[in-house]
Structure formats: C-alpha cells, structure tokens
Amino acid sequence: MFFGITGFEIRYQLRNPVFWVAVAIFFLIGFAVTASENIQIGTPGAVHENAPYAIAVATSVFALFYLFVITAFVANAIVRDDSSGFAPIVRATPVTRTQIILGRFLGGVTIACLGYVALPIGMWAGSVMPWVDPETVGPQNFSFYAWPFLIFAIPNIFMMSALLFALATRLRSMMAAYIGTVALVIGYLVASSIVGQKIEYRDIAARYEPLGSNALGEATRYWTQAEMNSRLVELSGTLLFNRVLTIVLGILFLALTIWGFTMTERAPSRWRLRRLEKRQQLEEGVAGVSPTLGGELINARDARPSRWPQFLARLRVEVRQVLTSPGLIVLGLFGILLSGVLLWFGPSAYGTPDHPTPSAVLTIVRGGFGISLLLIAAFYGGELVWRERDRNINEIIDSTPIESWIMTVPKIVAIFLVLLIVNIAGMLTGVAYELIGGAHSLGLSLYVTWFIIPAAFDLLQIAVLAVFVQVLMPNKYAGWAVLFAYFVGGIFLTNMGYSDPLYRFGGGPQVPLSDFVGQGSFWFG
Prior knowledge:
Blueprint lengths: L1 H14 L1 H19 L4 E2 L10 H14 L1 H18 L2 H5 L5 H20 L1 H10 L14 H30 L2 H23 L5 H7 L4 H7 L5 H6 L6 H24 L9 H18 L19 H17 L2 H19 L13 H10 L2 H16 L1 H4 L3 H5 L5 H34 L6 H29 L3 H20 L15 E2 L9 E3 L1
Antiparallel strand pairs: 1-3, 2-3
Helix pairs in contact: 1-6, 2-6, 2-7, 2-23, 3-8, 4-6, 4-8, 4-9, 6-8, 8-9, 8-13, 9-16, 10-11, 10-13, 15-21, 16-21, 17-21, 17-22, 18-21, 18-22, 18-23, 21-22, 22-23
C-alpha cells in the first residue's frame, strides 16, 4: 500500500503541468546564471562559470527560493483530498495514517528533487553556449554538478519538504501554506542578515543555519581562485555537522506530522460555523420571498446592447476577483520581500553603508523588479485568460452578445492593477527603509515621478503582452513557455546591445549578497 501511494503521487505530479512549468523556470534560472554576464553567482574574479564552487553556491542559494515550488508539490499532496472532497473515501479504506503520510511525502520529495535537477542542467547548458566567453568556462566534469546537488540540494529539499508538509497538514489550506512559506523566507533572510553581520556569531551560523550557505562560506573562506575552479567541497567538520543537522530536522518534522495527523474528520472551526450559519440564514431569507415572474413587463424588440455597461460590468468582475484573490497578498509580500532583500544587502562604498537617499533606494528597488514583474504578469495572464475554460463556462459566455474586446481589455486592466500594487509594495518598502536608515527627506514625490508613473507605461506593455500571448496559444502552459522564452531571449538581446523597454527594470546595479552566502560572491542584478 505504501509503494502504491508513492507511485500514484509521482504519476500524478508528473502529469501536473505545474511540475513542468517549475522545471522550465529553474532551468532558465540556471541557464541565465552561466550564459549571461548580467548575473554572477559565486564567480568572483577569474572563477569559472561552471566552477564547482560556483555551482555549489547556486545550488545552496536557490534552494531557498525553491520553497515556493516545493509547496506546490508537498503541500498539495496532503491538502488535495480535503479540497476535492475525496478525504472521507480515503479515510474509509484500510490504509493507515503512517502509510498515507509517508507515501504522499516520499512522492512529493521525489518530484521536488527531480524538478530541482533542472537547475544544474540549466547551468551546464548555459556554459556550453557559443556566445559565452571561453575564458570564463572551465572543463566540464559531472562531479562538479552531482556533488553539490547531493550534499546541498537533497538534504535541503528533504528538510524544507518535511517542514512544509507539517505546515500544510496542520493548516489544511494551500493558501495558508503559501503565506507560511513567504513568512519562512522573510524570517530566514532577516535572521541570516542579522547574524551574518556579527563576526562572533559566524561559527554558530555555519553550524546551525539549516540551508548550509554559511557552512559553505566557512568551508571555502580561504580558498584561492584556483581551488574554487577545481576543488570539490569536502563533507567534513562544520559542513558535515550542518548537513546531518538538516536531515535530523527533516526527520523530526516528519515525525511530528505523523504524530499530529488524524484519520477522523476535523470539526469545523468557529469561523467556518459562523459562515455556514450566515449562508443558511441567507438561503432561508431567499426561500421566504414569494417568486414574481414579471413576464408581462418584458417587451421583445430588436435592440443593440450597450457596450459601455457591458465593459464596466466585466471590469468590475475582473478587478474584484483580482483584489479579493489571496494570491495578491502573496504577491504583495513577495514585492516587499524582494525589495527588502535588495535594500538590506545593497551595495556600499568602501565597506561603509550608503546613506538611504531616494535616488539610491529607487535605483536598487527598480533594478530588481524586471524578472519578478514579468513572471507575475505571465502567471496572471494565463489564469485570467483561461479561467472561463478551466471552469467549463466558456461556451456559456461565448453564446452571449458580447464583443471580444469587452472580455479582453478588463483582463489587461486587472493584470496592470496587480503589477502596480506589487510596485507600490516595493515603493513602500523603500520608504520604510529610509525611515529606518534615518533619512532626512523621504522624497515621496520622487518615488511617484521617477518610479510609479514611468513604471506604469512599462507595466501596461507587460500586461498587454501577457494577455496577447495567452490568447494566441492553445493552452496557458504553452503561453507561459512562450513568455519564459521571451524572457531568456531578452537577456541575451541586452547582452548584445539591444534595448527592450520591458526589461527597463532589470538595468539596475548589481547587488552583492556576499553576507548571505558567507565568503561566496552572490550578485543579483
């Protein structure tokens, strides 16, 4: 029974388009790291793009951002039965709770590891591209990619999967799991930044930081560039202790999940009981109203429907669904997280922190939003354009006397509104950073004239592009693939001297995150 559940989970996730979209994303990330000069991770000085040190740094760092993908695999495995209404049937079978937990967890972890393999494959593919300078690429060695994946990726994915699995089992909600993931990422970055600034805590951080970035930095602190290009990280000392600790934490989270999981139906919460009571009262009130047909007031005549009221009605529907979507909360937190990380680890002159002037803050915030805005627009473009088809009501809408632009333009406006809200979240983070840094003048008017208003034109272009691509594609996953291909192509067009207005946000300065990975050089820009 255990292997049957595991096999079913693996087959289910392999058929899930989310898995292949995640594979494409992290393949493109790895590809961009080695194939583009705009992104440098673990390659200070003459360190090769495919050096074992650079691959180890990238494998460790991107595991943190892989948390969002792991949530889709692992949390979905345990929440899916409750959300689909299939849980009572599962509980009625002779399967035990240990078999369910371990089977679903093993299937989710296997898929998560398979998806993360796309990162080293993408790094290899990017390093062999013909436009990459041969002087920046060293010899290709399978162990350079396999060893970091074995000692960093697999333990990190196991521990993070166990943690998210426990969180999803307790909350029984995918959106709550995603919000918890964002909180974990923010808390991890804040804690790492505070501890990383203290030299006296360096050894403690290297031993107990669960993702191993500080342990990697401590193990390679005094390496020469020649060692970074040819030497594998030794699994010993502090690094060995850290990796064992990560695995033990994963086992502990998994044991807590098995202990706290129950096969009985969970009683509804007080909040849900109040909602059910209000719904029942509403239904009783509607049932108590005597029906009036009023057919005698209807006059059949040949009249052209008013396009403007139809447009406003569709606009209200699209905007209301976007503003009430829990995903907007996650994206707003993502904008705050991204801006906070870039500002916290922002560049400094001669080792001293820069004064938080509006110009310096705006440059950093604007420089880090190019990739995120395109990904957000791509996601919402697919969801909004294909929403009616996913819910099988497209034929009903197609039979109504509504022109195509009335259905399409409100979707563009809704996407534009989401992007604008994420940008405003970044702006507010910049203002908060100035207040914390003791800035004498906030320069709110400069934020509006230099950032929000110029960004609005670019955001509108991104929204139009996202909807345009999805309308032409046969399904939303093909549309996402086209937009990702456009994103990667834009990177190399920029390298060759071409300018794309949709990548204007990506032209900011490189932001060193060396403190985040110990001695390693991590540049995000």
